[in-house]
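Raw record, unedited: LysR family transcriptional regulator
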Amino acid sequence: MAHRYYQLPSLTALAAFEAAARHRSVHRAAQELNVTPGAVSRQIKALEEDLGTALFTRGRTGLTLTADAEALHVVLSQAFGRAAETIQAIRGGNRARRVVLACTHAFATFWLMPRIGDFWRRFPEISVDHVISDDARDFQRAEVDLRVRYGLGDWPGESSTPLMTEMIYPVAGRGFAERYAGRGPADIPELPLLHVDWADAEWTGWDELLRRGGVPHGALAGRRFGTFGVVIQACQEDQGLAVGWHRLVRGLVDEGRIVPFTGLRIASPGSYYLSWNDKRDLSGPAATLRDWFLETARADDV
């Protein structure tokens, strides 16, 4: 009977395990690998039988890795990452100068797109592919090189560097502001509010803004939307108050399309960061993009 030279289990099973471990989800792994969740589960079960040990415990919030699984995942993520870098280098051409960047819809629309043309002009040899999602789990996709994230800068498996701080304040359309002129922060809970149902819980909404601003309130009514961009569009149409993130809405404020409402203003509890997989070094093009972000963010503070 022939034996594998490296005495490894099935590479298909290892790939299924690595994706499930990275996402902490069989369904997310199946989406990435373009197979059914049942196929991923079967591969993991076969790997567990091969190794003679359980790799996951399954709970209401997803998969939890055992100690053996954590050790295996570290090794596999490093090996797959290095293999991907080598394969891209062998393929050559534009793929070797390609960077995959992940960020939210709001950041892409309001901050990045008005500025990224400068990068394209200065570094035409580097191709930037964008993963734009409000679900932070998409940022864990294997092909993502660099991420723009909001939070406290501490994410498992990622290295990070601060990009920008942020300020938050209520904003309204000009007509809405005129209609409710003279209202103060204490009146905000009773006014029409526009809410964003973020997939990422680290983003600050009305409840936290008012609490940090010292404004007493109960349950907050209002309209709810899935994306920040739609909320800001509704705000411009005088449909209600929105939580304005200064870095994102400053251009609209400067143009007079929306206006700050009341004097309520707080420093956001988190900041924007650039992050990347701490199991592999940034490629040259990814490092160039990172440096451009840092340079552009410094100019944005002026």
